[in-house]
Amino acid sequence: MELLYRRSLGPVVGAFLTALREQRLLGSRTAEGRVICPPLEYDPDSGDAVDDLVEVGSAGVVTGWSWVAEPRAKHPLPHPFAWALVQLDGADTSMVHALDAGSLDAVRTGMRVQVRWAPERTGHITDIACFEPEAS
Amino acid sequence: MAERCAIVGIGQTHHRKVREDVSFAGLLREAGQRALDDAEMTWRDIDAVVIGTAPDSFEGVMMPELYLADALGCAGKPIMRVHTAGSVGGSTAIVASHLIQSGIRKRVLTIAFEKQSEGDTTWGLSGGRSGGVGAGGYFAPHLRAYIARSKAPEYVGWMVAVKDRLNALKNPYAHLKVPDITLEKVRDSPMVWEPVRRLESCPASDGACAMVLTDEAGGDRAPHKPAWVHGTAIRSELGQFPGRDPVNPKGGQDCAADVFAQAGITNPRKDVDVVEMYVPFSWYEPMWLENLGFAEEGGGWKLTEDGVTEIGGDLPVNCSGGVLSSNPIGASGMLRFAEAALQVRGQAGEHQVDGARTGVGHAYGGASQFFAMWVVRDTKP
């Protein structure tokens, strides 16, 4: 098995992933003031270039989720977890990531969650190890 | 009668070995923005987008048109993607022109692109296996057969390389520039695939090309002189079948005959002012001169030898430096079409052919089996 592909991410998605190394989360702000996170280079509504990067919070709200009762080898967690859409504080869109909530009963739409950072960060989306219920 | 189609905006990137600074979307946007600027339009003014690129295996992005729709301002608008291997840039422009000529759309943006640096073309061509012969290895026997049949001297291939590399020096967007190019330098460059030497072959490039096409009213209102489409033709044939002649494919002959008939061209050698042909290896210049009807069979190389295909010659070919100088594969065909249009608009800058009024753009792809051509002029059909 070979895979010879590389990716150039450009100034917006590249900046988002690079900032993860420093435990910072960036979104792109459109001309109308919407904050897209993870950021897009071009506003999907207008097609305009979006190069205004703003920092958003590392905690947010679950807007949708799906329970994974039997994780597979390539999944980010070895025990049951949820794939969740998380709208971070200050963002107007949601990102999909793993949510380590312990049990199915503990997950609900509208719950507050926060980033659990990976101990070693390399500028990949896996620098966010997963989300977890927000500490109260 | 079909609606007339005008080319009112043309843009391209500076073609490079690697464009690490931009994403796929960023690369397309760069060419698209230049075409829109030329047309004095914005992304919002466009009714539909038609894009083209080489097979997905080259870069490993499956159906990039889905991801690119938002980035190209297509929310709520039609976008489609064209697939015809190396000829795709030409076919894509033709599909866009048909959306105009059919009266379905008034303003169409068409973009073709390749980011060869993100994948491995030889690997992609061999279905994801290492050890493939690549495009040069596949085409080399056809070139040897042409030389054997036509008795062309070996230096004709070198002459094509020198001409296109000198032309590239006049094109600010060209990728490969070899300022001190000479016949000796080509002759002494390493043999890559007999009879193709290194300086007789194309580079691998990242790049994109875009055009804005409009209906007749749009052409009349255009801020800069438009080019007008006088004929479009596409032909395909199987890559292998008994009796097929890959040196002078029937598909290419038929494509040329069709497009010339549409444009009222009876003597291509005389009636055409400038040609942009798909020449990724030097010997394709004489081969396509014959295949497209610019020369008798066996006589193409004599036009090259006599300097007819140089800027200032009777039938200048690849004044931009051609595929030999820039090869973002998916975009290479559209670059031929766009460069032909630039010439008849009088906008080709330093590589402009004085008084060019009828231009031909040509692209081929696959196993010399997909062909696309258009004829453009400075006047309405």
Task: Describe this entry's structure for a reader.
The complex is a heterodimer of chains A (136) and B (381). Chain A has one domain (10-133). Chain A has one helix and eight strands. Chain A has one helix spanning 10-20; strands spanning 25-29, 35-36, 52-56, 59-68, 81-88, 95-99, 112-117, 128-133. Chain A is globular, with a radius of gyration of 16 Å. Chain B has 14 helices and eleven strands. A nine-stranded mixed sheet of chain B has the order 3-2-4-7-1-8-11-10-9. Chain B has a two-stranded antiparallel ribbon with strand order 5-6. In chain B, α3 packs across α14. Chain B is globular, with a radius of gyration of 19 Å. The N and C termini of chain B lie close together (11 Å). The model of chain B has no long low-confidence stretch (mean pLDDT 96).
Produce the secondary structure layout.
The complex is a heterodimer of chains A (136) and B (381).
Chain A: H1 10-20, E1 25-29, E2 35-36, E3 52-56, E4 59-68, E5 81-88, E6 95-99, E7 112-117, E8 128-133
Antiparallel strand pairs in A: 1-2, 1-3, 4-5, 4-7, 5-6, 7-8
Chain B: E1 6-12, H1 24-39, E2 48-53, H2 64-71, E3 79-82, H3 88-101, E4 107-115, H4 121-125, H5 134-150, H6 155-168, H7 183-188, E5 191-193, E6 196-197, E7 206-214, H8 216-221, E8 227-236, H9 250-262, H10 268-271, E9 274-276, H11 284-291, H12 300-305, H13 322-325, H14 329-345, E10 358-365, E11 370-377
Parallel strand pairs in B: 2-3, 2-4, 9-10
Antiparallel strand pairs in B: 1-7, 1-8, 4-7, 5-6, 8-11, 10-11
